[in-house]
Amino acid sequence: MHCLIKDDHVAHGLTSVDGSSSTAVPIRLVDRAYESLRDALISLRIEPGEPMDEKQLSAAMGVGLTPVRDALKRLTLEGLVVIYPRRGTFAAEIRVSDELWLTEVRIPLEGQAAALAAQRAVPEDCARLLELVARLEDDGTDLVDLDAATHRAVYAASHNAYLEATCSQYANLAMRLWNYAFRRDPDASDVPCTLGSVVQAIVARDPERARLEAELHLRHFSDEVRSLLSR
Questions:
Q1: Residues 49 and 87 both lie in one domain
Q2: Comparing C-alpha atoms, which of 61, 98, 64, 66 is closest to residue 79?
Q3: When you count CB atoms within 10 A of the terminal residue's CB, does the N or C end of the chain come out lower?
Q4: How much is the pLDDT for 1?
Q5: What is the signed CA dihedral for 37, 40, 41, 47, rounded to 10 degrees?
Q6: Domain final residue, candidates 91, 108, 135
Q7: What are phi and psi of 38, to 5 degrees?
Q8: Is residue 186 part of a domain?
Q9: Which neighbouring-strand residues pair with 82?
């Protein structure tokens, strides 16, 4: 393992958090620190098993220790970070076997989120979903990031904060596995995305079709990941 923060690693591993605004409040800094670390962990810019030193992370993101500590606590609860007594804090290792367990949990949750989104999405939600799907279809270079953003937009459109938080947690772990699988075959990034059918059903206000399409999408996603991991 190598140390997370090196002069040539900071720019690639983490997003700087700007806390200079006089209107910034601590909770916003925590959220920004969390998102920066979350995205670095999911994308594997922070490698599985890599040490995560609070002071170095704080310096890299330009925030105090408190937002970093709170973000790490949240990431620990979500399974992306582990803390070992007397050893320190580390990025969680990736276990390939987790893909099956994640899929079993995600399929019914994703279906419910899509069905609720079809019932509750406001015009702004629909516009955001259509924008993301258009980008997915036009530009495959950011497939994983856009896929994750589209899933999160569906969760938000369900207007159920508990469901949104739960779906997001499991999706983050699944996206990390997806990026890990991509390392086996970088050309897999051009796999056709089936999220468009989910969004079409949501926009059409068809809850049952949205549920079905979301479940089919998850099964397709799982098959692709397992195929890559078996190579």
A1: yes
A2: 98
A3: C
A4: 38
A5: -120
A6: 91
A7: -55, -50
A8: yes
A9: 90
Cα 212 from Cα 92, distance rounded (Å): 32
List average pLDDT for each run of 10 residues in the chain, which is 231 residues long: 39 55 57 94 95 94 92 96 94 94 96 98 98 83 81 98 97 93 70 81 98 95 86 74
Query: The dihedral of CA 77, 83, 85, 88: what is its sign?
Result: negative
76 and 140 share one domain = no
Count of helix runs (H) and strand runs (E) in the chain: 10, 2
Which are the contacts of 75, defined by CB distance < 8 A and separation ≥ 6?
Answer: 34, 37, 38, 41, 81
Confidence at residue 105, expressed as pLDDT on a 0 to 100 scale: 96
Residues in a beta bridge with 90: 51, 82
Task: Give the domain range for residue 78.
Answer: 10-91
What pLDDT score was predicted for residue 21? Answer: 43
Q: How many CA atoms lie within 13 A of 229 on its CB side?
A: 20
Same domain, 189 and 108: yes
- Vertex 108, ends 228 and 185: CA angle to 5°? 10
* Residue 81 lies inside a defined structural domain of this protein: yes
- Cβ atoms of residues 202 and 121 within 8 Å: yes
Q: What is the CATH number of the domain that holds 67?
A: 1.10.10.10
**Which element (helix H / strand E) includes 89?**
strand 88-91
